User: Fold this.
Amino acid sequence: MNVERMRSPIEMARPHRATDVAHDRHPATLVRVDRTQLVERRVVLPDEPGVAPQAYRMLRTQVLQRARLHGARMLGVISAVDGEGKSLTAVNLALGIAAESNQNVLLVDLDLRRPSVAGLLGLPVEQGLEAWFAGVASIGDICRGIEGIERLEVLPTLAPVRGSSETLANRRTQEMLLELKEAQRDGLVILDLPPVLLTDDFLTVAPLVDGVILVASEGVTRREDVTRVRELLGAVRLLGTVLNRASESEKRAY
Assistant:
């Protein structure tokens, strides 16, 4: 069956001399990933059976409902500190949203100190946003789609970026993010953002996002850390909280 490919978020971005987001309006390069390895990395495909896929489907539905209610197009996935499953949640949420009909999603790895999205997905790529920041690649060179997963595109970061806070605060970076956001007329941009309490990276991006999802981990995340994160969010809308490694949820089935 022939399926017409929807215009990607990158294709729809308007030309902008400063950011180079528009890139000849060609579809993102499709790459193949190993689904067996995805399972080993706990990446959840939405069509799979089981408790975890069902939990992410519920998360997807709630996030989409709240995003549509508030007209949100750019969402951040955050945690208080590292090791709480933030990046994995961002990946699985993006995959779940992409499974919705007529719902484009662009996943951007902005955890510049410890990027992990490309590794979780097993993307066979040679350069990421670090090359764009260095001025040696365009967004179009970097953006990738995944074979068999319609409506999802990924902007990975492969190597840590020195001076990450300054890089994110740079006008060129901010304009690039705003343009990606503006291009999402029928979809979402999901940003995998750095832990809120460990750097000021998140604060430089916070004014651009329409809402955030806070990821916590049972038995790991401290109550005072969550309280401090909520204080730092200020006017940024908290769309919801995800509790990872919740032992009680694993006992439930339907």
Q: What stands out?
A: The chain has a mean pLDDT of 86. The beta strands are 29-31, 74-79, 104-109, 144-146, 149-155, 187-192, 211-217, 238-244. Residues 11 and 25 are 4 Å apart (CA to CA).
